[in-house]
Amino acid sequence: MIFPKGFLWGGATAANQLEGAYNVDGKGLSVSDAMPGGKIRWGILNSEDFDWSIDETKYTYPNHKGIDHYHRYKEDIALFAEMGFKCYRFSIAWTRIFPQGDELEPNEKGLMFYDNLIDECLKYGIEPVITISHYEMPLHLAKEYGGWKNRKLVDFYENFASVVLTRFHQKVKYWMTFNEINSACEIPALSQGMVGATGGSDKQNVFQAWHHQFVASSLAVKIGHELNPNLKIGCMIVYATTYSFDSNPINQLAAMQYNQAFNYFCTDVQVRGEYPAYTARLFKENGVQPLEMAEGDLALLKAYPVDYIGFSYYMSGVQNITSEDSETVEGNILGGVKNPFLEASDWGWQIDPMGLRLALNELYGRYQVPLFIVENGLGAYDTVEADGTISDDYRIDYLAKHITAMANAIKDGVDLMGYTPWGCIDLVSASTGEMAKRYGFIYVEKHDDGSGDLSRRRKKSFDWYKTVIATNGEKL
């Protein structure tokens, strides 16, 4: 047996991408509710004149309805249980608990929803894995406070984390503080709630916001461990295995420095509890002056590092700074130079299972803390055949190769906790706000034009993944 007994097989989603019911039972607006749908999403978020205003005369907002998981969660959890999930990674919508973000008292209806969702998981023996904040900062905090560059958000997040950890710690063992915290390297709108109009283009603000998030993360670890020392509270990053384009030392150095800036900076602070040795160089390269820090911040980071590293892995990247005519490709958060040895998905993301084995070895070798792959999957166009079946062999092939890479990494000595493929049920894509970009084992009858009755049906990959879990990864 390669995968250890108790390995956490499951699936992953995010509240803002599937719940819908964006204004139900006291929920406030989040930044995701203000993100337009479609392939124009990144361009709008990265423009200097976008100010978080919602304009339904110009744009669509698919996150408002999602796949209506808010009202259909029992049906969805039952399907996850049918596949044999050992765990289910989901997030708590901050605005269901604190609609504006700066209230003192929580919204009880929001807490009750997650009480019921957690209980539904536990009914089937499914371990909840909760992300406290997953790209859904209250819109009020983004517009009125300017996002995470404002120190006041530490207090608001601490209150939020304290409420949900206190409420659910007896039912939920596994937590993560922020989703893909390092994504702010490229798009601070997602994890930091900052756009060009509110200073998101200024790296000074990005690094200051990270410091505030690091402090907030450590406060969440402190709260959780004081409630129950056995809680496991992790960080969560995007990880993109990064290669040099060739053996030119200039590109080799560029790959190393990219790894430090993108893959390692946030985990160096959150896992090791201190800013890394290369921080001064990183600040200088980005024109960042010394950060504002409160007394006791650094001691807090050191005293309360995370327990494990959760990460998403979809693709790898290539660094080439010696040539300007390299072919480029799209990617998760970041695109880059095309790797001629790899195939790509329908959306241009380079498929690299071997890169996952490298990622696992690199992360475990650097930190020696347990790892948890909490996102991995293939966004693709799925076709419903005349008989109602969906034969997504391309997804099975993608996942099987990545699970094989995981097994090899475990043989290499990596401590891997679990695996939750992304979008175990079709949902709204974070990168493009589309339904057409499907990841799930479960097909949801909803389309980008708004049509569809939201009915669920099993894809071919549903039964395949059921077998993978039943055999603990032995049968792919």
From TrEMBL:
One of its GO terms (biological process) is carbohydrate catabolic process. Keywords: Glycosidase, Hydrolase. The active site is at 375 (nucleophile). One of its GO terms (molecular function) is beta-glucosidase activity. InterPro entries: GH (IPR017853), GH_1_N_CS (IPR033132), Glyco_hydro_1 (IPR001360), Glyco_hydro_1_AS (IPR018120). PROSITE patterns: GLYCOSYL_HYDROL_F1_1 (PS00572), GLYCOSYL_HYDROL_F1_2 (PS00653). It comes from the Bacteria. GO terms for cellular component: cytosol. Belongs to the glycosyl hydrolase 1 family. PANTHER family: 6-PHOSPHO-BETA-GLUCOSIDASE ASCB-RELATED, GLYCOSYL HYDROLASE. This is Glycoside hydrolase family 1 protein. It comes from Pseudolactococcus laudensis.
